Amino acid sequence: MSNTMPIENNQQGTLEPTSEKNATGQLKKISSAVQALRDAVILLNDDDGLEWWNQAAEDLLLLQVTDKGQSIFDFIRAPEFYQYYQSITIPNDGVHIESWRDAKRYLKCEITPFGDEKLLIVYDVTRLHNLEEMRRDFVGNVSHELRTPLTVMMGYLENFSHQPDMPPHWRRGFELMTQQTARMNRIVNDLLLLSRIEIEEAHELTYIDMTKLLTHVYDDAQAYNRAYGHTIHLQIDTYDGLQGSEMYLNSALSNLVINAIKYTPKGGNISISWTKTSEGCKFAVEDNGIGIAPQHIARLTERFYRIDKGRSRATGGTGLGLAIVKHVLYQHEANLKIDSVEGVGSTFSMVFPTAYVRSAPTS
Fold first, then answer.
1. What is the rounded CA–CA span in Å between residue 95 and residue 80?
2. Does residue 21 lie within any of the structural domains?
3. Contact between 143 and 195 (Cβ < 8 Å)
4. Element (H, E) at 259
5. How far is 164 from 197, CA to CA, in rounded Å?
6. Before 91, cis peptide (omega within 30)?
7. Domain range spanning residue 76?
8. What share of the chain in percent tops pLDDT 90?
9. What is the rounded distance in angstroms from the CA atom of residue 182 to the CA atom of residue 362?
10. In this structure, is the dihedral angle defined by the CA atoms of residues 309, 311, 316 and 321, taken in order, positive or negative?
11. Which of 3, 68, 147, 359 shows its CA 20 to 30 Å from the CA of 213?
């Protein structure tokens, strides 16, 4: 037994010795509190076996006293849980799985390693999952319903705007209405695209010739760049392609390039690159534009998040571009990295893992 005397805080906040009886009482209180939790708490040993669990875990996994030492994979058999378990990083966002007892329930598993053991917490997130599905359905349905009236309005506005006998003071009003309906149409289209990406659990993946795709993105960027006068460079250091969804990747890459053009003062320099790395292949867009303050970077991929609302609306942005990029990359197991210095420029890059990289087919 250790010779160190247990200590506790007194009323003045200073530390003083406490008795083993009090220490045992504190441990009992902690154990009772964990037992009272509605979330399942499970302690796993260094062999991934069950060491200890609370009542919620017992109800959820139908555990019995004789199950002590059994592997956690005997009770949670979801492939995504096993994959998450084998690649835990700290901090981590956990993994969502369907309940093995009720297909209408959804669970979130979070593992925290400490020493040779692990603490597994299982949350019931069914309500949050259903709310998220309702949100996606609502956005998708509303966006779809808005398309028809918007198309009608845009058609009539375009027709009226070209009337030769229209009074000058009316013409300005029609021009503004045309601009704003076009902007609303872009927002609706982006909402529909984002909703489609979120709803589709699996995409049809095909070989993508990245040299061809990037050349197409570069040509579109040059056309958009006419009003800005930037110098745009395209650097392709590998002919490796990707296994992915070409339509969604084209949207994501174009979003990053167009953003670089819009947020770089006229006459700037923009570099687009595709290179091979030890982790896979990397796409990057670098500019010498206005840059981004550090406090904004973490929130850039949120829907409708704007650093400068006035400037964003002036450039015609929908506020959904980077949210689309984030979800497209998620479908390809890639992440968006943003390096930026305010007043100096920004680099937006994404690394596609080796599992998605494909060598160019030989003819």
1. 7
2. no
3. yes
4. helix 246-262
5. 44
6. yes
7. 37-124
8. 27
9. 44
10. negative
11. 147
pLDDT for res 26: 67
Q: What is the tens place of the pLDDT at every residue in 113-138?
A: 887 888 888 888 888 878 777 777 77
Q: pLDDT tens digits for 238-292? A: 999 999 989 899 999 999 999 999 999 999 999 999 999 999 999 999 999 999 9
Say if residues 238 and 275 touch (Cβ distance below 8 Å): yes
- Whole-model pTM: value is 0.62
- Per the CB < 8 A criterion, the answer to whether 57 and 122 are in contact is yes
Buried b (16+ CB within 10 A) or exposed e, 324-343: bbbbbbebbebebeeebeee
Within-domain flag for 104: yes
Q: Are 177 and 184 in contact (CB under 8 A)?
A: no
Q: How far apart are CA 55 and CA 317, in angstroms?
A: 51
Q: Please, which pLDDT band fits residue 339 given cuts at 50, 70 and 90?
A: very high
**Cβ pair 120, 42 in contact under 8 A:** yes
The candidate with the shortest Cα–Cα distance to 185, out of 153, 227, 217, 221, is 153
Instruction: Please check whether residues 212 and 308 belong to one and the same domain.
Output: yes
Contacts of 210 (CB under 8 A, 6+ apart): 236, 239, 240, 241, 242, 274, 281
Most confident by average pLDDT, 89-98, 110-119, 342-351: 342-351
Domain boundary among 124, 148, 168: 124
Cα–Cα distance for residue pair 38/48, rounded to 1 Å: 23
Within a domain: 32: no
Q: Which of 65, 82, 72, 76 is nearest to 47 (CA)?
A: 72
Residue 41 β-bridge partners: 121
Helices then strands, each counted (H, E), the chain: 10, 15
For residue 221 the two structure tokens come to 């960027």
Residue with tokens 């209408």: 104
Compute the distance between CA of residue 263 and CA of residue 272 in angstroms, rounded to an integer.
15
